[in-house]
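Priority: medium. Attachment 1 of 2:
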């Protein structure tokens, strides 16, 4: 555990603010999108999967970051560092766990050197063993 409270569900967030802006992470297909999300409120996509059928289509430009890396969390971790931002210990720990899960402990076929580098960096920041 990383000492982080369980977040509210998306449905709870949308109940409070139906127009909240959404960034899709780890997918970009409408078939995988929560049906509660209004596609007009999607302002970004961060993903590591191939573009396939049912990819979200928008009427205006949105932020897109799709890379052929082993995990979406590798992309987010890299973005933290390129913007000279250090994630908190708990955020680093959660991203570390996500990368290790997505890449099958860095043994999966989609694992990249970027995944390995971010695991090393996040291990140090999160003080993981």
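Attachment 2 of 2:
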């Amino acid at each position: 555990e990383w000492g982080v409270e369980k977040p509210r569900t998306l449905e709870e967030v949308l109940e409070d603010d139906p127009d909240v802006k959404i960034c899709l992470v780890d997918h970009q297909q409408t078939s995988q999108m929560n049906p509660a999300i209004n596609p007009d409120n999607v302002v970004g996509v961060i993903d590591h999967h191939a573009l396939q059928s049912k990819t979200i289509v928008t009427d205006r430009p949105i932020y897109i970051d799709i890379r052929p890396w082993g995990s979406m969390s590798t992309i987010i971790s890299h973005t933290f560092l390129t913007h000279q931002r250090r994630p908190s210990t708990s955020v680093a720990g959660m991203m570390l766990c996500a990368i290790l899960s997505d890449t099958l402990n860095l043994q999966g076929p989609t694992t990249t050197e970027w995944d390995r580098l971010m695991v090393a960096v996040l291990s140090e920041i999160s003080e993981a063993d």
